[in-house]
Specification:
globular, Deacetylase_Atu3266-like, Amidohydro-rel, Metal_Hydrolase
Amino acid sequence: MIGNRFPKAARPLLIKGARPIGFDKAFDQPIDILIGTDGRIAEVGGAIVAGDEARTLDAKGAWMSPGWTDIHVHVWYGGTDISLKPTQCGAAHGVTTMVDAGSAGEANFHGLREFIIEPARENIYAFLNLGSIGLVACNRVSELIDMRSIDIDRTIATVEANRDVIVGLKVRASHVITGGWDLTPVKLGKKLSRILKLPIMVHVGEPPPLYDDVLGLLTEGDIVTHCFNGKAGGSILEDEDLYRLAEQAAARGIVLDVGHGGASFSFDVAKAALERGLPPKTISTDLHNRSLDGAVWDMATTMSKLLSLGMKMEDVVTASTTAPRRAIGLAADGLLETGKPAEFTLFDVVDADVTVKDSQGATSTLHRMFEPRHAILGAEPIVAHRYVPPARGGDEPHACPHCGWKS
């Protein structure tokens, strides 16, 4: 793993009055955190005096969690026709670690690494697409037509040469991708994941293959993304047998990931699963240029949707921080100990009246919202905010005030 790659800062950073949440150590009152110029925690205490050389960030009682970690985004900007820039879904919106979910395959992963992962201020990892071309022309040119789409030797070699950033394999198991190829790509991906000793993330969607059959192939540590999709034939709400299979999969350690996206999250399905005791293990956005201004918006809004459906705040935080870190093999314990890299998100939970949609177009009004304030990457505090999509029907492009991107 590349770990945290924060550049050396000119001055230490003192965060004052933050309320920790989501860490393995409990705190009963706000704390101060001193971060050295090397980006590591120098001191944690009740009232730290750092001296004039340190910059001070007054958290004003905001919550501080481990850095928000989104394990399903598409940020191979310029390399695929759906990808965003990392700045559009990263630190400016409270997210410190992102995982690109299969935008690149073995044939073009070098570009994702050189032009996106390495220059980014956030930590970016990747699931390597089983299909060699990745999502170059997503859904217009399938990456998994037949065996000519897969080069097993080159895929293995690409993973071995990039184990510091590749955290698993990605397979899209849906008839709109694979036609009648059914389970074969999932079986091949699972075989390679065993060889490489990495998890596989499987996109479940319109059958075939059946969501039921996909679950039967997966083992502990593998990830099902779009777990609460509302698609006909693939929804755990409409099929009691499938629901029980999903429960059994979660019990044996398969990670159920939200993967909201533009077509893959249903309020009704998620609410029913939560009421029956089947929460997602991880919360992710599946942000891309077709979902940003549509149903998703950002990580904070996605977290707020799960909060509104009945997840406890602490569980939402865990599913957005340490749980996804564990899912991709990153350290998730002792993140507030002296000497550890400083990677945090400062946020508030505020009263709101915001109307949002799921991927099926159903609307809901959120009355409590996660509001990111700062992303902390080493000794650098980055002002963060929720993404607000442009008003429909307006003629002027919407510009994000922090990342500068215009929609």
